[in-house]
Specification:
By secondary structure, the chain is mainly alpha-helical. Among the domains are: 46 residues, no CATH class; 48 residues, no CATH class. 56% of the residues lie in helices and 10% in strands. A three-stranded antiparallel sheet has the order 1-2-3, with helices on one face. The mean pLDDT is 88. InterPro entries: SCO6045-like_C. This is SCO6045-like C-terminal domain-containing protein.
Length: 185
């Protein structure tokens, strides 16, 4: 497969709607993607079931990585976590060297914006784990977030407002978190 087709192949592996359209009508979709006749023929020779299988395995791998980075959210949402991830995975493709971290942060943002999650403390839990991941960036020296529920405690998920501060003294310093109960909300 020629190098110029790699970005298109990546799109086919990560975008189910594009994949379906392409294998239904490779000439029209290939032309829309700016491919020439030879390139379209090369991609059309791929087995649609094999491409679908590989695409599914990529998403499963991503799901596993994100589940490890958002363990409390995964536990709280249980089966809903996977369901939401499959929906999300159609909308975002991570790029770069920290793609698992960025994927987890983007997924947490997706849950915050799109999902109708109950009970309310779960959204605070998502925000809390997302903040940990954001604070983990070495160039981030200070991050402050407010929460309505004590999602981080062994006391359960009480409606007990608090402020969390993640900080490090230098870019190579150890990340620390300090939590202060807040009566001001």
């Amino acid at each position: 497969m020629e190098l110029a087709l790699q970005p298109i192949l990546a799109q086919l592996y990560t975008n189910a709607e594009l994949r379906s359209r392409f294998f239904t009508n490779p000439e029209a979709v290939g032309a829309q993607l700016g491919l020439n006749t030879t390139q379209i023929q090369q991609l059309a020779q791929l087995s649609a079931p094999a491409v679908n299988l590989f695409a599914t395995s990529l998403k499963r791998k991503r799901l596993g990585e994100v589940r490890e980075l958002l363990p409390m959210t995964a536990k709280a949402l249980d089966k809903e976590f996977s369901k939401l991830f499959w929906q999300y995975a159609e909308t975002y493709i991570p790029q770069g060297i920290k793609k698992h971290l960025l994927d987890a942060i983007a997924f947490a943002s997706y849950i915050e914006k799109v999902a109708n999650i109950a009970p309310d403390w779960i959204l605070d839990l998502v925000r809390y784990e997302k903040a940990w991941l954001e604070a983990a960036e070495p160039n981030k020296l200070l991050l402050v977030r407010r929460f309505r529920y004590a999602v981080n405690s062994s006391e359960g998920h009480l409606q007990q407002p608090f402020v969390a501060l993640w900080f490090r003294l230098s870019q190579r310093g150890k990340l620390k978190c300090m939590q202060v109960r807040s009566l001001l909300f």
